[in-house]
Amino acid sequence: SFFYIAINGGSLISTFLTPILREDVSCLGRSDCYPLAFGIPALLMIGALVLFVIGRFLFAYRVVPPQKQNIFITVCKCVYVSFLQ
């Protein structure tokens, strides 16, 4: 799914990008820039949280009716049929 690709891709990119931002950029009168290295990922996570909160209102919740039979028996039947195939 696209979600997992985005999570793993972002993790891979940040693994290489964070040390570069920390060492090669100077800020606040110092030779290293930890605020930039960790501030950019923090802002991106806040943006992702905002998108998540906004997007959750686009989905409809539905009540799932209770099972008429034991769920364990249903799972056993499913496993049995999968072994037959």
From TrEMBL:
The organism of origin for this protein: Euroglyphus maynei (Mayne's house dust mite)
Name under which the protein is recorded: Uncharacterized protein
Membrane topology: Multi-pass membrane protein
Main localization, broad class: membrane
Keyword set, alphabetical order: Membrane, Transmembrane, Transmembrane helix
Cellular-component GO terms for this entry: membrane
InterPro entries: MFS_trans_sf, POT_fam
Residue runs in coiled coils: none
GO MF: transmembrane transporter activity
Locations listed in the record: Membrane
Taxon lineage: Eukaryota, Metazoa, Ecdysozoa, Arthropoda, Chelicerata
Spans traversing the lipid bilayer: 38-59
